[in-house]
Specification:
- With 327 residues, this protein is an alpha/beta fold.
- Helix content is 37%, strand content 20%.
- It has helices spanning 6-20, 46-49, 61-73, 92-99, 102-105, 134-138, 151-163, 211-225, 244-253, 268-280, 302-308, 312-324; strands spanning 2-5, 24-28, 54-56, 77-81, 115-120, 144-146, 168-173, 180-183, 196-199, 204-208, 230-234, 237-239, 256-263, 289-293.
- The protein has a seven-stranded mixed β-sheet, with helices on both faces. A five-stranded mixed β-sheet has the order 9-11-10-13-14, with helices on both faces.
- Helix 8 crosses helix 12.
- The longest helix is centred in the N-terminal third of the chain and has 15 residues, at 6-20.
- The protein is globular and about 65 Å long.
- The protein starts with a strand and ends with a helix.
C-alpha cells in the first residue's frame, strides 16, 4: 500500500470522483492559477486533466458558495474551495440560511449536493486567519461536517462527501496537509457519521478529531512507556456525531478526556462531554475532563501561538491529573 500525504490523498479523491461523474466541478480562488493549484496545492494539475471543470473565481466567498448552491440545486455536484475557514465568515448567510435549509424548506424535493472544502485551524497567520470553527459548523442542522485526521480517512470521506445529496463542510486542518499515511490504490469509501478507534487501550478514553487525533496518539505512545494504556477514539465526522465507540470505550476504561483545538467555552467538547455524561453516567469513575485551546485571539509570534494551543504535553498532563485523583 502506498504511503502518501494528506494533500495527495485529497487530490486523488477529487480526481477519481471527476473521472467517475461529469457533474463534479471545482470552483474557488486560485484553484487553477496559484502555485499550480490552490493555496495548499490540493487541486494541482486537475485543471489540465479536466478542462473547463476547474475554475478560478473572483475573491468573493459569498458568490462562490451562492453559485455552488444554485449549481447543486440544478443537478451538478460542485466542490467549492474556500482558501481558509476564516473566509467562510463572509459566506455565512449562504451556508447557514441557504445551503443548509433548502432541502428541509422544500420537503426534500430540492437537494443541495455540494462540498465546501476549507483549511481549518492555526498556521501562523494571526488573529483573523488562524482560527478553528469546527464547532460553529457542527451547530447547524442541515449541514454535514467532516474533519478527517489521516490521509486514508481524508480520501475515503471526501469521495463519500462528493456523492452525498446534502451540503457537506469538509474541514482540512492546515497542519495535516504534509502528514503521510498508507492509502490503497483501489477505490474505497468511508461513510459519513462513523467514528473510528485509532488506538486501543484500557485505562483512559480520549475522544477527539482532526489534528488533535495526532497529538493524542503522540501522547498515548509516551504514556504507554509509563504503563498508562490510552484508547483514542477519532470522531472523523462532527455532524452527525457518532458517539457509539466513545460509549463502548467508556464502558471499558471508565475515564474520559475530550480533546479539541478550538476554544473551550461552548465548544464541541462541551457537547460531547454532556452527551457522554447523560448516556454513560454509571460507567464513569471520574468527572469528564476537557483539553482545549486558550480563549484569546490567536497571536502571530510562533511562541505565543503555540502557547495558546493544545499539544501532546497538554493531553499527557490531563491524563496524569485524572489518573492521580481519588474520587
Amino acid at each position: 500500500m502506498a504511503e502518501i500525504t494528506y494533500r495527495e490523498a485529497l487530490k486523488r479523491a477529487l480526481r477519481e470522483e471527476m473521472q467517475r461523474d461529469p457533474t463534479v466541478v471545482i470552483w474557488g480562488e486560485d484553484v487553477v492559477a496559484y502555485a499550480g493549484g490552490g493555496a495548499y496545492g490540493v487541486t494541482s494539475g486537475l485543471a489540465k486533466e479536466f478542462p473547463g471543470r476547474v475554475r478560478d473565481t473572483p475573491i468573493a466567498e459569498e458568490a462562490i458558495i451562492g453559485v455552488g448552491i444554485g449549481a447543486a440545486m440544478g443537478g451538478m455536484r460542485p466542490v467549492c474551495e474556500i482558501m481558509t475557514v476564516n473566509f467562510t465568515l463572509v459566506a455565512w448567510d449562504q451556508i447557514v440560511n441557504h445551503a443548509a435549509k433548502q432541502s428541509h424548506m422544500f420537503n426534500g424535493q430540492i437537494k443541495v449536493p455540494m462540498v465546501i472544502r476549507t483549511p481549518n485551524g492555526h498556521g501562523r497567520t494571526a488573529a483573523t486567519h488562524s482560527q478553528n470553527f469546527d464547532a460553529w459548523f457542527a451547530h447547524v442542522p442541515g449541514l454535514k461536517v467532516v474533519a478527517p485526521s489521516t490521509p486514508y480517512d481524508a480520501k475515503g470521506l471526501l469521495k463519500t462527501s462528493i456523492r452525498d445529496d446534502d451540503p457537506v463542510v469538509f474541514l482540512e486542518h492546515l497542519q495535516l496537509y504534509g502528514t503521510r499515511g498508507e492509502v490503497p490504490d483501489e477505490e474505497y469509501l468511508i461513510p459519513i457519521g462513523v467514528s473510528d478507534y485509532k488506538r486501543r487501550g484500557k485505562d483512559v478514553t480520549i475522544v477527539t478529531w482532526g489534528r488533535m487525533t495526532m497529538e493524542s496518539l503522540k501522547a498515548a505512545r509516551i504514556l504507554a512507556e509509563e504503563g498508562i494504556d490510552v484508547e483514542v477514539v477519532d470522531l472523523r465526522t462532527l455532524r452527525p456525531l457518532d458517539l457509539s465507540l466513545a460509549l463502548e470505550s467508556v464502558h471499558k476504561t471508565n475515564r474520559v478526556i475530550v480533546v479539541e483545538e478550538g476554544w473551550r467555552t461552548a465548544g464541541l467538547g462541551a457537547e460531547i462531554a454532556a452527551s457522554l455524561q447523560e448516556m454513560a453516567f454509571n460507567d464513569l469513575d471520574a468527572p469528564i475532563a476537557r483539553v482545549a485551546g486558550l480563549e484569546v485571539p490567536m497571536p502571530y509570534a510562533r511562541n505565543l501561538e503555540r502557547a495558546t494551543l493544545p499539544f501532546a504535553e497538554d493531553v499527557i498532563a490531563a491524563v496524569h491529573a485524572m489518573m492521580q485523583k481519588q474520587y
